[in-house]
Backbone:
């Protein structure tokens, strides 16, 4: 089949978010054809170029979201009237809709750091949702008829329509309090979000020709899929490994309350429309699934598919027999007595990831102080690069804390001491790859207070390593029963779990083997590709025929274009089918004698 892959800031750009799993998906489904429709997020991303594309990618069309290209379209009086009507309806829906996720049941409150319970949110009303969808489709039809909306969305006419909606009876308090700077700021955000409406991607030779649209994320990336469904009836599948609506709630803290409220309403209604129109929604884990249900997703449409990782780079470490030999030696030394065990080689804890405050390395360092008191000679390797300026400052703070907690050690009076905590980056000695890092460690540690899908933890599982993790995000779902899980921001619990594994090599070996088996079963590329292959077929099978094939008499022929028609070979030629005689003979009419 022919699939339209929709991305925002990701595939096919080098280093794009989510680009790795998209590339693995496209390469794994080599029997299908892919048309990629991608939004870029900056000049640097476009300058970096694309990844090498496989032959099944037939077409790539891109559009920038970071700059508005003047289209030179000047609307006439009738078009301006249509724009004012639809844009005003869109603004009215935003000003009157309840913000998803703002209401709780009486006496309840979500636990900090966790997703809210499904069913406790105040979802957008049906009237507001329909009003939003009709206005969005009306603007899209206007853009298709007139050639674009770039100038109209940036005009004074748009700002005045937004102001009227904010001042109208029934508008929420936050919208009524919006001032002129707030209206200008929100109009600018809305213009950026609605730029996909002006694209020429929705014609019969574009997204109208694909069999299925697959949005690699929610939000703006799914908007072309909504329009393709509206104009051509193309089914839509949306993958969310991180729920975009939740991301919008956590961004732009410097904006005014009115702007944040209007932005939350827009993204909430866009998410609700996406969830309503999509044939299937694909969360990457149960944590994301709970957020989707919280935001109004229908449970019948949800299909959890875990991200797929390539296990090949970690096979050498995971299957290395020397690891088992080392574990046996440690067990034998433990049995021979405490004195001999103290002279054995030092244990090493490994932390691997991006250095940023959400990873809570401060708690890890305090926990390591207790580990060193219980197990002298243990070392800690922190491997990773800082994430932006904030990460640089945090790394400096962690280095200073490590120097304060752990003075340099030396073997003798004439030797040079070194700190038991090392800060490294991938590519250095002993850390050429992530597999090398895990190979040199005894236990892998994750200390985050905020985490989505812990890829680094799965890599440690591929390497057959026992792990100690904090209970955040999808950690428990990933680990299952193959590692130890402790509360976040609890250095003592983290230290006790690490010490328990360092003192029990047999348990480490058992947990590491179970972790590797679990990762190979649930988180490999093969299971990810197979799951999406089945989902694509199920989606198309449940979709009505959009371009019916007619016979010689002009009557539609259902199932006249089977899936095999896309594969070259002799089976693509239609063959006559045997028809029973009772199906072709004209039955005699049943008559009733009137007396």
Residues:
């Amino acid at each position: 089949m022919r699939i339209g892959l929709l991305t925002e800031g990701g595939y096919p750009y080098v280093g794009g978010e989510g680009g790795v799993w998209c590339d693995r998906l496209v390469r794994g489904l080599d029997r299908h054809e892919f048309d990629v429709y991608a939004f870029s997020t900056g000049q640097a991303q476009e300058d970096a170029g694309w990844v090498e594309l496989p032959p099944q990618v037939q077409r790539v069309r891109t559009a920038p979201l970071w700059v508005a290209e003047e289209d030179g379209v000047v609307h006439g009086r009738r078009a301006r009237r249509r724009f004012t009507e639809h844009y005003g309806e869109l603004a009215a829906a935003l000003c009157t809709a309840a913000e998803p996720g703002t209401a709780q049941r009486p006496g309840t409150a979500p636990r900090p750091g966790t997703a809210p319970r499904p069913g406790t949110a105040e979802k957008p009303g049906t009237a507001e949702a329909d009003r939003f969808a009709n206005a969005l489709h009306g603007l899209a039809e206007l853009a298709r008829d007139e050639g674009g909306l770039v100038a109209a969305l940036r005009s004074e006419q748009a700002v005045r329509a937004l102001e009227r909606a904010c001042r109208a009876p029934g508008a929420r308090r936050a919208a009524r309090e919006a001032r002129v700077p707030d209206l200008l700021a929100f109009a600018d955000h809305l213009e950026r979000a609605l730029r996909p409406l002006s694209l020429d991607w929705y014609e019969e030779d574009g997204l109208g020709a694909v069999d299925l649209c697959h949005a690699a994320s929610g939000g703006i990336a799914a908007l072309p899929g909504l329009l393709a469904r509206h104009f051509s009836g193309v089914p839509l599948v949306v993958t969310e490994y991180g729920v975009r609506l939740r991301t919008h709630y956590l961004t732009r803290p410097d904006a005014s309350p009115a702007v944040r409220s209007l932005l939350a309403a827009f993204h909430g209604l866009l998410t609700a429309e996406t969830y309503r129109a999509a044939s299937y929604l694909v969360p990457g884990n149960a944590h994301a699934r709970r957020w989707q249900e919280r935001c109004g997703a229908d449970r019948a449409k949800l299909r959890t598919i875990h991200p797929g990782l390539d296990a090949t780079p970690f096979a050498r470490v995971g299957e290395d027999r020397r690891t088992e030999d080392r574990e046996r030696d440690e067990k034998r030394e433990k049995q021979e007595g405490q004195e001999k065990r103290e002279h054995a080689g030092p244990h090493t804890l490994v932390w691997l990831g991006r250095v940023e405050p959400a990873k809570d390395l401060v708690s890890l360092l305090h926990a390591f102080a207790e580990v060193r008191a219980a197990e002298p000679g243990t070392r800690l390797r922190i491997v990773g690069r800082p994430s932006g300026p904030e990460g640089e400052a945090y790394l400096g703070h962690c280095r200073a804390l490590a120097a304060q907690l752990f003075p340099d050690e030396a073997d003798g009076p004439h030797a040079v001491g070194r700190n038991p905590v090392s800060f490294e980056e991938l590519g250095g000695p002993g850390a050429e790859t992530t597999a090398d890092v895990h190979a040199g460690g005894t236990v892998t540690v994750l200390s985050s207070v905020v985490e989505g899908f812990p890829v680094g933890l799965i890599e440690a599982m591929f390497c057959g390593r026992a792990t100690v993790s904090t209970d955040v995000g999808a950690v428990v779902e990933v680990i299952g029963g193959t590692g130890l899980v402790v509360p976040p921001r609890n250095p003592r619990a983290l230290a006790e779990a690490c010490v328990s594994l360092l003192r029990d090599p047999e348990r480490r070996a058992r947990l590491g083997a179970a972790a590797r088996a679990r990762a190979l079963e649930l988180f490999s590329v093969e299971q990810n590709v197979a799951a999406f292959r089945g989902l694509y077929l199920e989606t198309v099978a449940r979709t009505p025929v959009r371009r019916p094939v007619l016979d010689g008499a002009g009557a539609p022929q259902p199932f006249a274009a089977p899936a095999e028609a896309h594969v070259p070979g002799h089976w693509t030629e239609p063959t006559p089918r045997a028809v029973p005689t009772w199906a072709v003979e004209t039955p005699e009419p049943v008559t009733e004698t009137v007396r």
About this structure: The chain has 24 helices and 14 strands. The first strand starts at residue 2 and ends at 8.
